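Student: Hello, beginner here. Can you help me understand the protein record under this note? Any guidance would be welcome.
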Amino acid sequence: MNDVWNGVLILMRTASFIAAFPPWAGRSLPQTVKVGLAIALTVFWTLQPGEGPLPAAPEMLAGIAIVCVREVMLGVVMAQVIGLVLIPPRIAGSYVAQEMGLTFAALTSPMDQHPSDPIAQIFDAIALCLFFVLDAHHFVFRILDVSWRTTPVGSGWPTPMWARCAMASAGAVEVGLMIAASVAVLLLIVTVWMALATRMAPQMHLFAWGSAIRIIVGLGALIAYLPDLLLACARSLLSRQAEFLVR
Protein backbone atom coordinates (compact mmCIF):
# COMPACT_ATOMS: atom_id res chain seq x y z
CA MET A 1 0.00 0.00 0.00
CA ASN A 2 2.87 2.36 0.78
CA ASP A 3 4.39 1.67 -2.64
CA VAL A 4 1.17 2.75 -4.35
CA TRP A 5 0.89 5.89 -2.22
CA ASN A 6 4.52 6.76 -2.94
CA GLY A 7 3.90 6.39 -6.69
CA VAL A 8 0.79 8.59 -6.51
CA LEU A 9 2.71 11.39 -4.76
CA ILE A 10 5.56 11.16 -7.26
CA LEU A 11 3.04 11.37 -10.09
CA MET A 12 1.42 14.44 -8.51
CA ARG A 13 4.68 16.36 -8.30
CA THR A 14 5.99 15.21 -11.69
CA ALA A 15 2.75 15.90 -13.58
CA SER A 16 2.34 19.37 -12.05
CA PHE A 17 5.98 20.17 -12.85
CA ILE A 18 5.60 19.16 -16.49
CA ALA A 19 2.29 21.02 -16.82
CA ALA A 20 3.72 24.27 -15.39
CA PHE A 21 7.25 24.31 -16.85
CA PRO A 22 7.33 27.14 -19.46
CA PRO A 23 8.66 25.22 -22.53
CA TRP A 24 6.03 22.53 -22.01
CA ALA A 25 3.17 24.66 -20.70
CA GLY A 26 0.30 25.86 -22.86
CA ARG A 27 -0.93 24.18 -26.01
CA SER A 28 2.40 23.99 -27.85
CA LEU A 29 2.96 20.41 -26.61
CA PRO A 30 0.18 17.81 -27.05
CA GLN A 31 -1.50 16.70 -23.84
CA THR A 32 -0.86 13.04 -24.63
CA VAL A 33 2.89 13.71 -24.75
CA LYS A 34 2.75 15.43 -21.35
CA VAL A 35 0.78 12.57 -19.82
CA GLY A 36 3.12 9.96 -21.30
CA LEU A 37 6.21 11.81 -20.08
CA ALA A 38 4.77 12.19 -16.58
CA ILE A 39 3.85 8.50 -16.35
CA ALA A 40 7.22 7.36 -17.73
CA LEU A 41 9.16 9.50 -15.25
CA THR A 42 6.90 8.40 -12.39
CA VAL A 43 7.48 4.72 -13.16
CA PHE A 44 11.24 5.33 -13.40
CA TRP A 45 11.50 7.16 -10.07
CA THR A 46 9.08 4.82 -8.29
CA LEU A 47 11.24 1.81 -9.14
CA GLN A 48 14.38 3.51 -7.84
CA PRO A 49 15.46 2.33 -4.36
CA GLY A 50 14.81 4.99 -1.73
CA GLU A 51 17.12 6.01 1.10
CA GLY A 52 14.44 6.07 3.80
CA PRO A 53 11.09 4.47 4.59
CA LEU A 54 8.19 5.03 2.23
CA PRO A 55 5.53 7.53 3.33
CA ALA A 56 2.36 6.11 4.82
CA ALA A 57 -1.01 7.20 3.48
CA PRO A 58 -3.12 9.28 5.90
CA GLU A 59 -6.23 7.61 7.22
CA MET A 60 -8.56 10.58 6.70
CA LEU A 61 -9.62 11.81 3.26
CA ALA A 62 -8.79 15.39 4.23
CA GLY A 63 -5.21 14.38 5.04
CA ILE A 64 -4.84 12.66 1.67
CA ALA A 65 -6.13 15.76 -0.12
CA ILE A 66 -3.76 18.06 1.81
CA VAL A 67 -0.70 15.95 0.99
CA CYS A 68 -1.66 15.72 -2.71
CA VAL A 69 -2.24 19.48 -2.98
CA ARG A 70 1.10 20.12 -1.29
CA GLU A 71 2.91 17.95 -3.84
CA VAL A 72 1.13 19.69 -6.71
CA MET A 73 2.05 23.11 -5.32
CA LEU A 74 5.66 22.05 -4.86
CA GLY A 75 5.86 20.84 -8.47
CA VAL A 76 4.35 24.07 -9.79
CA VAL A 77 6.67 26.27 -7.73
CA MET A 78 9.73 24.30 -8.84
CA ALA A 79 8.67 24.57 -12.48
CA GLN A 80 8.14 28.31 -12.28
CA VAL A 81 11.41 28.97 -10.44
CA ILE A 82 13.52 26.81 -12.76
CA GLY A 83 11.66 28.29 -15.74
CA LEU A 84 13.14 31.67 -14.80
CA VAL A 85 16.31 30.62 -16.67
CA LEU A 86 14.39 31.43 -19.89
CA ILE A 87 13.07 34.80 -18.74
CA PRO A 88 16.18 37.06 -19.19
CA PRO A 89 16.26 36.71 -23.02
CA ARG A 90 12.55 37.56 -23.14
CA ILE A 91 13.12 40.65 -20.99
CA ALA A 92 15.99 41.67 -23.28
CA GLY A 93 13.82 41.25 -26.39
CA SER A 94 10.93 43.19 -24.87
CA TYR A 95 13.21 46.06 -23.87
CA VAL A 96 14.78 46.25 -27.34
CA ALA A 97 11.35 46.13 -28.98
CA GLN A 98 10.14 48.94 -26.70
CA GLU A 99 13.11 51.11 -27.67
CA MET A 100 12.48 50.36 -31.36
CA GLY A 101 8.78 51.21 -31.06
CA LEU A 102 7.50 47.71 -31.91
CA THR A 103 5.40 47.14 -28.81
CA PHE A 104 2.22 47.91 -30.74
CA ALA A 105 2.56 44.60 -32.62
CA ALA A 106 1.29 42.23 -29.94
CA LEU A 107 1.54 38.56 -30.91
CA THR A 108 1.15 35.29 -29.02
CA SER A 109 4.30 34.04 -27.34
CA PRO A 110 5.59 30.64 -28.58
CA MET A 111 6.09 29.41 -24.99
CA ASP A 112 2.82 30.54 -23.39
CA GLN A 113 -0.45 32.31 -24.19
CA HIS A 114 0.68 35.77 -23.10
CA PRO A 115 1.01 38.61 -25.65
CA SER A 116 4.47 39.27 -26.95
CA ASP A 117 6.27 41.38 -29.54
CA PRO A 118 8.32 40.28 -32.59
CA ILE A 119 11.75 40.90 -31.05
CA ALA A 120 10.82 39.11 -27.82
CA GLN A 121 9.64 36.15 -29.90
CA ILE A 122 13.01 36.01 -31.65
CA PHE A 123 14.80 36.04 -28.29
CA ASP A 124 12.38 33.40 -26.98
CA ALA A 125 13.20 31.16 -29.94
CA ILE A 126 16.94 31.69 -29.38
CA ALA A 127 16.61 30.87 -25.68
CA LEU A 128 14.57 27.75 -26.44
CA CYS A 129 17.14 26.53 -28.98
CA LEU A 130 19.99 27.17 -26.54
CA PHE A 131 17.97 25.40 -23.84
CA PHE A 132 18.24 22.12 -25.78
CA VAL A 133 21.64 22.74 -27.40
CA LEU A 134 23.27 23.28 -23.99
CA ASP A 135 21.51 20.19 -22.54
CA ALA A 136 19.55 22.30 -20.09
CA HIS A 137 16.67 19.81 -20.28
CA HIS A 138 18.99 17.28 -18.62
CA PHE A 139 19.63 19.85 -15.90
CA VAL A 140 15.86 20.17 -15.35
CA PHE A 141 15.45 16.43 -14.87
CA ARG A 142 18.49 16.43 -12.60
CA ILE A 143 16.94 19.10 -10.36
CA LEU A 144 13.68 17.15 -10.24
CA ASP A 145 15.61 13.99 -9.36
CA VAL A 146 17.49 15.78 -6.56
CA SER A 147 14.18 17.01 -5.13
CA TRP A 148 13.21 13.46 -4.15
CA ARG A 149 16.16 13.39 -1.74
CA THR A 150 16.14 16.99 -0.50
CA THR A 151 12.35 17.14 -0.16
CA PRO A 152 10.93 13.60 -0.09
CA VAL A 153 7.30 13.07 -1.02
CA GLY A 154 4.93 13.44 1.90
CA SER A 155 7.35 15.65 3.86
CA GLY A 156 6.87 19.26 4.93
CA TRP A 157 7.17 22.36 2.77
CA PRO A 158 10.85 23.38 2.35
CA THR A 159 11.51 26.73 4.03
CA PRO A 160 14.45 27.89 1.77
CA MET A 161 12.17 27.67 -1.29
CA TRP A 162 10.79 31.16 -0.72
CA ALA A 163 14.28 32.72 -0.59
CA ARG A 164 15.20 30.89 -3.78
CA CYS A 165 12.09 32.24 -5.54
CA ALA A 166 12.79 35.84 -4.49
CA MET A 167 16.47 35.78 -5.50
CA ALA A 168 15.79 34.09 -8.84
CA SER A 169 13.00 36.54 -9.70
CA ALA A 170 15.06 39.61 -8.80
CA GLY A 171 18.07 38.49 -10.81
CA ALA A 172 16.14 37.79 -14.02
CA VAL A 173 15.48 41.48 -14.77
CA GLU A 174 19.10 42.48 -14.22
CA VAL A 175 20.42 39.70 -16.45
CA GLY A 176 17.90 40.54 -19.17
CA LEU A 177 18.97 44.19 -19.23
CA MET A 178 22.62 43.14 -19.39
CA ILE A 179 21.88 41.01 -22.47
CA ALA A 180 20.22 43.94 -24.25
CA ALA A 181 22.79 46.52 -23.08
CA SER A 182 24.75 46.78 -26.35
CA VAL A 183 21.68 47.35 -28.51
CA ALA A 184 19.94 49.48 -25.88
CA VAL A 185 22.86 51.91 -25.59
CA LEU A 186 22.92 52.42 -29.35
CA LEU A 187 19.17 53.04 -29.45
CA LEU A 188 19.51 55.46 -26.54
CA ILE A 189 22.09 57.44 -28.50
CA VAL A 190 19.73 57.54 -31.49
CA THR A 191 16.87 58.74 -29.27
CA VAL A 192 19.01 61.53 -27.80
CA TRP A 193 20.14 62.52 -31.31
CA MET A 194 16.55 62.68 -32.53
CA ALA A 195 15.54 64.78 -29.54
CA LEU A 196 18.37 67.23 -30.24
CA ALA A 197 17.51 67.34 -33.94
CA THR A 198 13.87 68.11 -33.15
CA ARG A 199 14.98 70.82 -30.72
CA MET A 200 17.23 72.45 -33.30
CA ALA A 201 14.75 72.09 -36.17
CA PRO A 202 11.17 72.16 -34.80
CA GLN A 203 9.72 71.96 -38.31
CA MET A 204 10.95 68.38 -38.58
CA HIS A 205 8.18 65.98 -37.57
CA LEU A 206 9.67 63.44 -35.19
CA PHE A 207 6.80 60.97 -35.61
CA ALA A 208 7.18 61.02 -39.39
CA TRP A 209 10.79 59.86 -39.56
CA GLY A 210 11.81 58.95 -35.99
CA SER A 211 10.13 55.53 -35.90
CA ALA A 212 11.68 54.43 -39.19
CA ILE A 213 15.17 55.43 -38.05
CA ARG A 214 14.82 53.63 -34.73
CA ILE A 215 13.63 50.46 -36.44
CA ILE A 216 16.42 50.54 -39.03
CA VAL A 217 19.11 51.22 -36.42
CA GLY A 218 17.68 48.58 -34.09
CA LEU A 219 17.59 45.89 -36.76
CA GLY A 220 21.12 46.79 -37.86
CA ALA A 221 22.33 46.60 -34.27
CA LEU A 222 20.66 43.21 -33.75
CA ILE A 223 22.38 41.84 -36.86
CA ALA A 224 25.76 43.36 -35.97
CA TYR A 225 25.66 42.22 -32.34
CA LEU A 226 24.04 38.84 -33.03
CA PRO A 227 27.12 36.77 -31.97
CA ASP A 228 27.42 38.77 -28.75
CA LEU A 229 23.70 38.39 -28.05
CA LEU A 230 23.88 34.63 -28.55
CA LEU A 231 26.90 34.41 -26.26
CA ALA A 232 25.17 36.54 -23.63
CA CYS A 233 22.05 34.35 -23.74
CA ALA A 234 24.16 31.20 -23.43
CA ARG A 235 26.10 32.65 -20.49
CA SER A 236 22.85 33.65 -18.84
CA LEU A 237 21.44 30.15 -19.19
CA LEU A 238 24.59 28.49 -17.87
CA SER A 239 25.00 30.94 -14.98
CA ARG A 240 21.41 30.43 -13.86
CA GLN A 241 21.94 26.66 -13.92
CA ALA A 242 25.11 27.01 -11.82
CA GLU A 243 23.18 29.20 -9.38
CA PHE A 244 20.60 26.48 -8.79
CA LEU A 245 23.25 23.78 -8.49
CA VAL A 246 25.39 25.69 -5.98
CA ARG A 247 22.60 26.80 -3.69
User: Anything to note?
Assistant: DSSP finds ten helices and two strands in the chain. The mean pLDDT is 77. The longest strand covers residues 107-108.
